[in-house]
């Protein structure tokens, strides 16, 4: 198995597990204000996992892609982050 794919999958499993645990915590707390606080914490996990998995994937593909293609991928990631993080 490709080590880059296994790292990407591991990060996604971690992210999914964090989402499920957060949902269970919200149910356990049973209060909107506390559930919103837990949900706000997840706002940091999503973009972080996105950046890490993209970086790992690009590292694994760096030898196969030309510099111009890597530049286009970088622009796409930048646009995603702008769309996610801009208020």
UniProtKB/TrEMBL annotation:
Transmembrane intervals: 41-61, 67-85
InterPro entries membership: Uncharacterised_YqhV (IPR020390)
Entry protein name: DUF2619 domain-containing protein
Keywords assigned: Membrane, Transmembrane, Transmembrane helix
Taxonomic source organism: Paenibacillus pseudetheri
């Amino acid at each position: 198995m490709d080590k880059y794919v296994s790292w990407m999958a591991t990060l996604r499993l971690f992210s999914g597990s964090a989402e499920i645990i957060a949902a269970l915590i919200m149910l356990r707390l049973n209060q909107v204000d506390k559930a919103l606080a837990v949900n706000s914490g997840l706002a940091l996990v999503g973009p972080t996992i996105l950046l890490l998995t993209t970086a790992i994937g690009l590292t694994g593909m760096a030898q196969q892609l030309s510099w111009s293609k890597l530049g286009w991928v970088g622009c796409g990631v930048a646009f995603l982050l702008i769309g996610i993080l801009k208020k």
